[in-house]
Every structure is written in C-alpha cells, then in structure tokens.
Amino acid sequence: MTLETVEIETAPNPTVSIIWMHGLGADGNDFVPIVRELDLSGCPGIRFVFPHAPEIPVTVNGFREMPAWYDVVVTEFGREEDEAGLRASQVSINELIEREKARGIAADKILIAGFSQGCAMTFQVGLRYPERLGGLLCLSGYVPIDTTLEAEASTANKDIPIYYGHGRGDQVIPITRAQRSLSLLQALGYNVEWHEYNMPHSVCGPQLDDISNFLKRVLN
Predict the structure, then answer these.
(1) Within 13 Å, how many C-alpha atoms sit on residue 147's CB side?
(2) Nearest in space to 176 (alpha carbons), one of 76, 102, 106, 105
(3) Which of 74, 107, 89 shows the shortest CA–CA distance to 23?
(4) Quick one: CA torsion of 89, 142, 23, 45, rounded to 10 degrees?
C-alpha cells in the first residue's frame, strides 16, 4: 500500500522532488514548516513530499503504537536492529521514488531527506537505490544495517552528494554514533559534507542555512 503523504510545491510544474521522512512518533506534517524557512532562491521548482510512516508497536516505548519506520528494540542504535522493518520501509520509499518518476521527475532530480529514524531510512534507501539520485539530506541519524552496506551499495550512487548534520548535545542519538556512521561512509569512499551543531536532537537556524546552501549547490 502506497504511503500517504503531505505535499508542498514551491512553483508550478516542479522539476525536482524531495522525499523527506520524519522521526519516530511524528508524522509527515512535522517538517512541513521547514519549507518556508529554507532559502531556495534560484532553485528550480521543488515538490516536497512528506510521507507518514505506518503506526506500529515500538518496543522501547512499551509496545505503544505510533508512527515509525521500524521498531526500536534497544536505545543503543545499531544493536538488535529491526532489519525486516527497515527493509519494508525501504520498499515503501522506493515506491514513492517510482511515483515521482512517473510524474515526470528524473531520478537524478529526486533527493531523499530525513530526520532521526527518517535519516536512517535516507541512508538505507539512498545508498542502495539502483539509479542515480540527486542527493541525500541526513539529519540527526545514523547508517542502519551497516554491515551489509558495502555489499548492497548501488554503484550509481557511489558519488551522490550527501549532507550529514548532527547535534553535539543530541540526547537521543549520541553524536558518537553518527561519527561512527561518518567514518564508515568515508571508508567506503562516499563524499560526505559533515556538519556539527550546538543543539540537541533537533534542527537549528545555522543548519537550515547549510541545508539551503547544499540544495542550491546540487540543484543548480
């Protein structure tokens, strides 16, 4: 079943799509306000697609049902991963990419973005997608199922532009976890634009500036 989405277009007949995934317990509306906070001057028309994750029981939250891209079994991210959940959501996001292509957006004009769990999904989807994508925006997350990445990585996206930002005071996903992912990506030869911010598990003004500059660079 295709995921439900919230969509915002910055201009009629957009030529770029950005599929942006929220974090655990949020929904597609969570990052809608960010669109008007970005400086997209000079960029082509963009369709922002904000999907809603399915509601599933989440182990670390007492099995309460909430929007989640995959289950979280332990708070030490990367240990006891819900690989089946990650791969199922990967299929769902791939379907959204295919839908954007069917709407006339070229694969290399489709960017994948996400925060926290959404960031993990951005890595999971973007680094394995068989066609060249436009870029990855990875916020406050980590690379999941990292032991299989080298074998499963798409050669088409080996040189994809990657923005990766994380807060030094992140109390949910420690920056040390993100730095381990960064080291892995660099060891595998990925071109990562890494940024650290004085913030908790959130988004801040300087980060929005960096994201805006990244988008201007890769879209022009």
Answers:
(1) 5
(2) 76
(3) 89
(4) -80
**Residue 7, strand partner residues:** 49
> According to DSSP H, which parts of 38-82 are helical?
none
Give the up-direction half-sphere exposure of residue 6: CA atoms within 13 A in the CB hemisphere. Answer: 14
Q: Per-residue pLDDT tens for 104-144?
A: 999 999 999 999 999 999 999 999 999 999 999 999 999 99
Amino acid making up residue 105 = I
CA dihedral 127, 131, 135, 139 (to 10 degrees): -30
Distance CA 19, CA 31 (A): 11
**Token couple for 54:** 């399915």
| Average model confidence (pLDDT) across the chain | 96
Query: Which residues are the active-site residues?
Result: 116, 170, 201
Beta strand residue intervals within the chain, DSSP E: 5-9, 16-21, 46-51, 55-58, 64-67, 110-115, 135-139, 162-167, 192-197
pLDDT tens digits for range 5-47: 999 999 999 999 999 999 999 999 999 999 999 999 999 999 9
Task: Show the CA angle centred on residue 5, arms to residues 204 and 106, nearest 5°.
Answer: 90
The pair of structure tokens assigned to 220 is 């022009």
Rounded Cα–Cα distance for residues 150 and 217 (Å):
27
Residue 76 has pLDDT above 70, yes or no: no
**Pairing between strand 55-58 and 46-51?**
unpaired
